[in-house]
Design goal:
- By secondary structure, the protein is α/β, with parallel strands linked by helices.
- It folds into two domains: 245 residues, Type I PLP-dependent aspartate aminotransferase-like (Major domain) (Aspartate Aminotransferase, domain 2), CATH 3.40.640; 158 residues, Aspartate Aminotransferase, domain 1 (Alpha-Beta Complex), CATH 3.90.1150.
- Helices cover 34% and strands 13% of the residues.
- The protein contains twelve helices and 15 strands.
- Helix 1 runs antiparallel to helix 8 and helix 5 runs parallel beside helix 6.
- The longest helix has 19 residues.
- The protein is globular and about 70 Å long.
- Bound molecules: pyridoxal-5'-phosphate.
- The site of pyridoxal-5'-phosphate (PLP) has 14 residues, from helix 3.
Length: 421
């Protein structure tokens, strides 16, 4: 058995981060603005604006304290107010939808389609029509999510959104560097959300960014990210603002990370390829890959689905014990679970595989539980087709990222094969 645990996605430093941080200390820029923030934003702009075989775009980027803050400010800038509705992909991490509630608005959940696992454009249009009919007003924004890095059908989503005049906020927090038709995610909609949390494609320890259409919309976001201060010699406030700007120290880490972002993405793709290769003859396990040439996922996490008939050793004992503490140890889970099971959970074979990998010192995790099945959102409207619930029942996330070596992937695949009864 391996002594060193293999994690889902660990932060990986380039070695240049400390130079940028040192410079911030040497020049006394230890504040939530400064040369590293400006430099990091420039690096990000260069990265997201480049396109395959086409002239670069001219989007602007604002560095923020978290991806969640980016979602929050994008919604604010789209004019979301108390009582408004926002259409959001149900199959996502809670940071896509929680900020809607911060504004007193209502998340309306849209299920996924089978190819990309992301927002189903047909359901999106059904929902828009139905919300207009039921409430007499248009939803204020649409949030598709690049789950595990996989692009959504952005061409169809934009066509529908434009036809109804509803702005799109792309949640590309997991999809930094993923492309659709050769264009970087986050640059199609009115706003694009990025995250640099410790487990994402690159990290600033914690942080995020918002991709904006132009300088004016960047300035608007900056205004709200820095407590909405008007230009007077004294503090003058005509709007409510937030303290969401990125720290110059964190941005120093980001600048270091930008020197290896291409390597990181290439490595994630390589790990995905290796899983596919090594698992192709294992019946009952299917890797989730790009549905067509138009998709170019960064494979932030590699994901697989288990045939419900696949027997995993010990699955008869799955969910016998109430979990105490955090699954995987990375998340700050402080509430103890009150029950060993819920009415919507992964199949027994998926849980048994997770436990088998855990015993082999490998971190694995179920897919994200759809928001429309979360108790906190039980009263929210949702437009469903069963796809995300079904995927949640059969799916599992496997380790990816720069620290996962070819030998690690072989070790993980061997552990998977050994767990099959
Ligand atoms: C991580 C994540 C976010 C939020 O990012 P933070 O930087 O952690 O606040 C938003 N949406 C999705 C889908 C994410 O995975």
């Amino acid at each position: 058995m391996r002594k060193e645990r293999i994690y889902l996605c660990l932060a990986h430093m380039s070695g240049k981060e400390m130079d940028f941080i040192q410079e911030a200390f040497d020049t006394n820029w230890v504040v939530p603005m400064g040369p590293n923030v400006n430099g990091f934003e420039k690096d990000l702009e260069y990265f997201v604006n480049s396109r395959e075989g086409k002239a670069p775009l001219d989007k602007k980027v604002v560095g923020l304290s978290a991806g969640t803050a980016a979602v929050h400010l994008a919604l604010l800038a789209c004019g979301v107010q108390p009582g408004d509705e926002v259409l959001v992909q149900s199959f996502t991490f809670c940071a896509s939808s929680h900020p809607i509630t911060y504004l007193g608005a209502v998340p309306v959940f849209i299920d996924s389609e089978k190819d990309s696992w992301n927002m189903d454009p047909d359901l999106l249009e059904t929902a828009i029509k139905d919300r207009i009919e039921k409430t007499g007003k248009k939803p204020k924004a649409i949030i598709p999510v690049a789950l595990y890095g996989m692009p959504y059908q952005i061409d169809r989503i934009m066509e529908i959104a434009d036809r109804y005049g509803i702005p799109v906020i792309e949640d590309a927090a997991e999809g930094l560097g993923s492309c659709y038709d050769g264009q970087v995610l986050g640059t199609f909609g009115r706003y694009g959300v990025l995250s640099f949390n410790g487990n994402k494609m690159i990290t600033t320890s914690g942080g995020g960014a918002l991709i904006c259409e132009d300088e004016a919309s960047k300035n608007e976001i900056l205004f709200y990210a820095t407590q909405a201060r008007e230009s007077y010699p004294y503090y003058q406030h005509e709007h409510i603002g937030y303290n969401y700007r990125m720290s110059n120290i964190c941005a120093g880490i980001g600048r270091g990370q930008m020197t290896v972002i291409d390597d990181h993405i290439a490595h994630h793709k390589h790990v995905q390829e290796l899983y596919c290769e090594l698992l192709k003859d294992v019946s009952g396990i299917t890797m989730h890959g790009n549905p067509s040439d138009r998709y170019d996922s960064n494979f932030w996490l590699c994901t697989a689905t288990l045939d419900p008939d696949l027997k995993i050793k010990g699955q008869e004992n799955a969910y016998r014990k109430v979990i105490t503490g955090a699954v995987g140890g990375a998340a700050g889970v402080t509430h103890a679970a009150s029950t060993a099971t819920t009415d919507c959970q992964p199949n027994d074979n998926v849980e048994a595989l997770r436990v088998a990998l855990d015993v082999a010192n490998i971190e694995a995790r179920p897919l994200w539980k759809p928001m429309h099945k979360q108790p906190v959102y039980r009263n929210n409207p949702s437009y469903t087709n069963g796809v995300s619930e079904e995927l949640f029942a059969v799916g599992i996330c496997l380790p990816a990222g720069p620290y996962v070596t070819d030998d690690d992937v072989r070790y993980i695949v061997d552990a998977i094969k050994e767990s099959i009864a």
